[in-house]
Amino acid sequence: MAERGGGGGGGGDRGGFGRGFGRGDRGRGMRRRSGGRRDEEEKKWIPVTKLGRLVKDKQITSLEQIYYHSIPIKEHQAIDFLIGPGLKDEVMKIMPVQKQTRAGQRTRFKAFVVVGDMNGHVGLGVKCSKEVATAIRGAIILAKLSMIPVRLGYWGNNIGKPHTVPCKVTGKCGSVSVRLVPAPRGAGIVAARVPKKILQFAGIEDVFTSSSGSTKTLGNFVKATFDCLLKTYGYLTPDLWMESRYIKSPFQEHTDLLAMPIKVTYQDEAENVEA
């Protein structure tokens, strides 16, 4: 009932949130104003994990090094540090959800956010909070922590850069099923509005899609598409049959650096107090 609304600008029962995708006063506009805040957070970032220390010391320079050794990412600032300004985010939908209590109904807001660098990395975050801004901020952090590599391939001859998915993949969430089919170069992304945005953030240029089920449930539609992209590396094609060369984990390679004590300075805070 909360998802169904009138066709007017107020959105009927939906509280005037529109349908996401940057429309209205709660879309992408509020994210563009936080560019300076992101730079300040990077400067003040004090890593608390081994991975964070190696990323800040520039011993790890790409996400592929992290994925190769299956290291869990616990700090979203590491993603900002590695990808930089090329990371983009999009609010897919903000929907009110309610819980019945003895005192009445408790309304909170659920945000779906997609982040990606248009170059083979994409993440999906879902967060529920009492305030819209808090839900969006939390969803962006969760999306960065859930960043996955997306494998790209070719439709025919291996000419130029990879432009489509390497094989047919199917993802499912709830009743929604999404199927991605490789497409020739120049075909574009033949998809609905919801999966098209995720595929663009993943860096896919040409693909055919087929979906079934209750696709009007946007949350499941987004998750099913994300599940598709997650499975692109799940199938071992013959070009990946080459012998793997095992290398040391970054934690083993930089043991001496990680054994050094961490020096924390509070010079900036002292200057702010004096000012």
Structural class: alpha+beta
Biggest sheet statistics: 4 strands, antiparallel
What would the principal axes of the Cα set say about the shape?
A: flat
Q: How many β-strand stretches?
A: 8
Mean pLDDT: 85
- The percent of residues in helical segments reads 25-40%
Query: What's the helix-strand series?
Result: HHHHHEEEHEEEEHEHHHH
Strands in their spatial order, largest beta sheet: 1-2-3-4
> Which runs of at least 5 residues are low in confidence (pLDDT < 50)?
1-17, 23-34
Keywords:
four-stranded antiparallel β-sheet; four-stranded mixed β-sheet; alpha+beta; disordered N terminus; 275 residues; 8 strands; 11 helices
Structure notes:
The protein has 275 residues and is of the alpha+beta class. It contains eleven helices and eight strands. It has a four-stranded antiparallel sheet, with helices on both faces. A four-stranded mixed sheet has the order 5-6-8-7. The longest helix is centred in the middle third of the chain and has 14 residues, at 132-145. It is flat and about 55 Å long. The termini are far apart.
Q: What is the structure about, briefly put?
A:
The chain is built from 11 helices and 8 strands. The chain is an alpha+beta fold and 275 residues long. Helix 3 runs parallel beside helix 5 and helix 7 packs parallel to helix 8.
